[in-house]
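Hi D.,

Good news: the full-assembly prediction came through. Inputs first.
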Amino acid sequence: MITIYNLTKIYKGNTVLNIEHLEIQKGKSFGLVGNNGAGKTTLFSTLLDLIQPTTGYVENNGIKVNESEEWKSITSAFIDETFLIGYLTSEEYFYFIGELRGQKRPDVDALLSKFEDFFHGEILGQKKYLRDLSKGNQKKVGIVATLIGNPEVIILDEPFANLDPTTQIRLKKIIKELSANPNTTILISSHDLIHVTEVCERIVVLDKGVVVKDLVTSEETLKELEGHFNK
Amino acid sequence: MFKHFIILQWKSFWRSASLTSGLFMKLFIGFWAIWVIVMVVSGGIGAYFFIEENLNLDPLDTINRFLIYWFIFNLLLRYALQKMPVINIKPLLLLPFKKKKIVSFAFGKTIFSFFNIIHTFFFIPFSIVLIQNEYPVLNVLLWNIGLVALIYCNNFLNIILNKKDNLIFIIGGVLAVFGTLQYLEYFDITTYTTPFFTTLYQIPFLSIVPVITLILLWIISFRSFTKDLYLDAGLASKTNTVKTENLDWLNRFGKTATFLKNDIKLIKRNRRARSTIIVSFLFLFYGLLFFTGAVETYDGPIWRIFAAIFITGGFLLGFGQFVPSWDSSYYPLMMTQNIRYKEYLSSKWWLMVIATLVSTVLASGYLYFGWEVYLVIVVAAIYNIGVNSHIVLWAGAYVKTPIDLASNKYAFGDKQAFNMKTMMLAFPKMALPMLLYAIGYYAYSPYLGYALVAIAGIAGFAFKDAVFSKIERIYKTEKYKTLAAYKQTK
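Then the structure:
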């Protein structure tokens, strides 16, 4: 689904990303781990054509992301709060994203009703603007908004951060359900090794922009990851 | 201790996104600042001779007469334009600073604001001329001190008023009512206020009154700000209960409606955006300076077009220059969604067109000065819609200053609305219609001038698609730079 060719990003002589070749299969859940500054967010930003790579390119469903915009209709992402419109209420935001993705209001409502558990009564009908919600609740809105319109590629940067334990468990369930769908490719980054090994079928470890491990998740994976980061 | 604050300020100023962005911008702003100062200084010197020789009135008396309007208008202008004292307060709270120090520094900063300093450039030259013309030195000096104290009273009044949203409309309304009454010669408020300002001069030590008022206002605002230095008081974000709005009636605009609905919410719910409406309303009255003959330099026929462009184009100029900066805080979202730039742009364009039309209708009050005056306004409106709306969007595509919409949440937050830069960038857009009008006016008659400007406006429509495509290309080529610039929030 997503293929990376000779991708490098150099900031003032510092190589922050250097991936020769990486292919992410369709329908898989893909996890990205690494310490701060490993290049996780930079990689996701290049996938979304928000950052221009120094060399190389990214293909999403066979489309070069920096040349055509066709990939946008099948891709959704939540990287940080710059993906939220602060002066809208949650409902308005969901409907806005829905309209952009060609979804009628009843479709959006139907989707939202599936996430009542996840929202825990703190999102819908709150009479608050998104900017006034807590960080955790903002994240819930952002994550659910990426699911509007059945995108084929979903990119979530640190989805577990800032969420309370209950919501983390619910989110894991949601991600597992999504990855059961053979048409949905899901990309996640996280600092939490346990969460990632639980929900991702494949895990890539980035260190200073370079892929140092590429694992198919098994029972040994968590140990191996802990061993790697405990060096 | 102040040293630390000053160093912090210094760094935040020089490292801010808007300043690091371009040398050209700095030079441009510097140039206009000097120009404004020169104009004000020569105004101060010129006022004396102008009033004495042309109007045969006593200069000091005349100035005293209009001071009340000066002060109220100044207060309004401050409310719309002056930045509130901002320092990044939260991280300072736990450090070993006295809270009073933090507040005094924030207030101290406002003392050097443009809105305070600029008056000095008028009153000092004016007073020097007064003294040269044998007005008693001590009286003039103390009169000055009184006025300076009053200016700073405004400064603190503004700080206090900024906490209340509606008060300013009342003050603005009062100003408009008294102004109109005086113009129509029904009631002259200045007969009651002039004696106050005159006594400041005649009984010199009465200047103590404004000084005491100033001290009181300082204490009041100081106390209220010190008291509010808690996370759940002044530093808390104001959360109002709000309603979800659907604005379904806009769906008739088709695909543009998606963005139009958002833009209307943007303006309604963010003070920074809302102030463009207030400023454009104030600009409706800008024409009074020209068409009443109040300012002699503006009597030339060419200036009429200049005034009319501002009367109908206040919103267009204030809002349009910051497209797409209004969306800066969620620009990455916009860039990853399947958005047609043309639909996005045309939403902003429609907003500007609607605002211009509304201003034109509201400006029908100018019919009082004769139908020809209104004709100028209509012609300018056509030009604004046809030409300026495109130019403004085009220029905006290069402006990469992020706008922090949420900044109005804090009592100490950046409450200001709209800045001087915006207006300065607007002046070049006036040159072409003035030139067109001048050609018509001097070649044949004023009507040919109007016709030329109107034709240019109508012709502008033909280029709408071409300009939109051009802007789209700019958006695409500048995409990464814009994203990077918007990342800096200040």
